[in-house]
Amino acid sequence: MxxxxxxxxxxxxxxxxxxxxxxxxxxxTVGGILTAQRAAVSAHRLxxxxxxxxxxxxxxxxxxxxxxWAAGYRARCERMLDDIAVPAREAEDAPRARECAExxxxxxxxxxxxxxxxxxxxxxxxxGATLVCLGPLSNVAEALRREPRVLHGLSELIILGxxxxxxxxxxxxxxxxxxxxxxxxxxVFAAAAxxxxxxxxxxxxxANDDAINxxxxxxxxxxxxxxxxxxxxxxxxAGEDRAAARAYRQCVARRLVAxxxxxxxxxxxxxxxxxxxxxxxxxxxxxxxDERTGVTxxxxxxxxxxxxxxxxxxxxxxxxxxxxxxxxx
Length: 329
Ligand SMILES: [Ca+2]
Known about the structure:
Elements: E1 4-8, H1 12-20, E2 26-29, H2 36-47, H3 68-83, H4 87-90, H5 94-103, E3 106-107, H6 115-125, E4 129-133, H7 138-146, E5 154-160, H8 176-180, H9 182-195, E6 198-202, H10 216-223, H11 242-259, H12 268-275, E7 280-289, E8 296-298, E9 305-313, H13 315-326
Parallel strand pairs: 1-2, 1-4, 4-5, 5-6, 6-9
Antiparallel strand pairs: 2-3, 7-8, 7-9
The structure holds calcium ion.
Calcium ion binds next to helix 1.
Keywords: Glycosidase, Hydrolase
Protein name: Inosine/uridine-preferring nucleoside hydrolase domain-containing protein
GO cellular component, one term: cytosol
């Protein structure tokens, strides 16, 4: 299984994605649906065991009256994550949570001042990984500003965001992750084109689609109570208590699904793309990003960035993956 780095705004759907993925070699937090600091607290409450500080960036676009839906969604997410009953949340020690709130958090890389430097260090230490971006691209753009060749050290960039062939629900028809920090999105897409990095785009063309109908019996089975025991290092890469860590991640994912079943049509798809790429149909597309609005539009070949655009998912296979990963021990 290839190595992954994950950058996340750690809402409910991100938590499910993190629980589904094999333990990433690096997790950093970024502001989006949650602020970077709240995302760090959220990651800590779900998985515990943060090993280093790494403050993520908050994007320039903040919620305005036009984005009332997103502000309401943020408040709902914060409430649910405040109340979630998982052992890491219950074992949370107040000073550690305060530290996360102040500094953000990274798993996997110690001793870095912020998310961008943790990412640069991780790429240098472990070249050839896949970077999975589950939030706005602010941290990646900042890493590029400091180290213009940072994408050269990745084998692949998976971006959950954009709305290419269907409009998104953010202002101007953008998708939220791109809308929060349009300049960062434009920068990262341009840099991926220049570096020749394979970019797989999981945009609104697949994500958030009503066509992804996870059937009620499976959702009910996922929502059934399950025992949840906190291992020493729930997100640690391949440790001694691998089975215990997997059982714990299953439990976290299932409690998050119970909170918000529709989250299965969002960020967890990026985990599915890592675990079983064959269940997606990808098409080559050229995508231009508007640096003022974050709108991602298809443009002529030779312009924009060549991406592998996910245009379809095999829903039956996605359900099989959820069953295998979350219901089987
Ligand atoms: Ca997210």
